[in-house]
Amino acid sequence: MQHMTESVSCDAMQKALPWFITGRLAEGEAVELRAHLGVCETCRQELAAEEQLRSLIGVENSVELAPQASMRKFFERLDNLEAIPASAPTQTAPSRFRRWQVAAAVVVTVQAAGLTFLGVRLNATDPRTVTAAAYVTRSAGAEHTFGPRLRMVVDPSLSMAEFEKMLQSIDAQIISGPSEARVYTVALPAAVGSKDEAARLAVLRQNPAVRFAEPISAPDTRQ
Amino acid sequence: MPPASFLSDAAPATRPSEARERALLARIAAHDREAMRELYLTYHRRLGRFLTRLTSRHDLVEEIINDTLVVVWQKAPEFRGDSRVSTWIIGIAYRRGLKCLRAEQRASENMQMPLPEDGWAGDESADNNVARDWLERALNALPVDQRTALELTYYLGYSCEEVASIMDCPVNTVKTRMFHARQKLRVVLPLLAAPQMEP
Predict the structure, then answer these.
(1) Which end of chain A lies in a sparser environment, N or C, as judged by fewer CB atoms within 10 Å?
(2) Closest CA to B50 of B141, B150, B138
(3) Is the ipTM reported for this complex over the cut 0.90?
(4) 3-class secondary structure, B171
(5) Per-residue pLDDT tens for A104-119?
(6) What is the three-class DSSP state of B57?
(7) Which residues of A touch B40 (CB under 8 A)?
């Protein structure tokens, strides 16, 4: 096919050069470009300059990241996605909690002001808080009676599975958090008395991953 | 000479790998974890290569990778096959990470050293390191959209149409972004070409 290549826009030709160089330009366009290059010195020089640029960019290496740790976290997230709230055999609120679905629903029943959830995602360097931002339980409709409450902060290296296990061992559940300061509010079952509360608090504090755990002293319903 | 990393990453147009990925995706849609594991390993590497060329924050890269693959897990049943599996997944990663990447780019802009206007005199061995440094700075100074178009084209070897699909924009926009990126990098070229251009 004959082209009046002088009238073909050099601008359009030059814009297509990168894909011509990588061999990913559509055949029709490539044919046209080759024909144009045959008669246009300017575009030939452009091609040479572009090949130079491309070879230099390609030399810069990217980092290869080992996938195992990330993959482990990934499958933990899938577990959490599929976690079904347990049909509660106990008199207290279920000790399982939903995560991503809850985050999507964004319903907070705890009367705590000023907690940010998804907003912390991109700022937090703690990978666990990305998923933990969804850690707000939603009481299924009716109000629940929570027992004594605690505030706690855990080490970022603690996985969600381990955190959950720790809370289950004292029959506690997260009722809000993490806040921007990574503080969780945790509630014990309603029937727990003060001696029992102290014992359970001690269990938490024994765990080296627990940086901070304190009862919320006033028996109020506010955060 | 094409970059070795692109060749070893299995060019996007390779049909066998596309068929394999579609088969994996079908299994993933049925919640087959083994299939997800296989896809995860492939795409952790591929997304990692792409994303680490856009940001030096490895923690962000890992977060974007996992966020992306969670979406893949959830949306696998909805994948209609009107694009390649890889362009679909990389598009999710790009859009997912866009906010992070733009914030990161703004942060690196603040650390930007001015590029030299003329050549400089120096010994040859030092020249190479300094040259790489200028290229790195020039790349970091590009707006995320322009850098992405550049990396997808030159590093991952996608066609213009595929880049448009990944970046969810018209083909002409890709060409324009690429053009601007190239023009900015040309400033650095005379420095990189001195003293001897590598073939």
Answers:
(1) N
(2) B150
(3) no
(4) helix
(5) 444 444 444 444 443 4
(6) coil
(7) 67, 71, 74
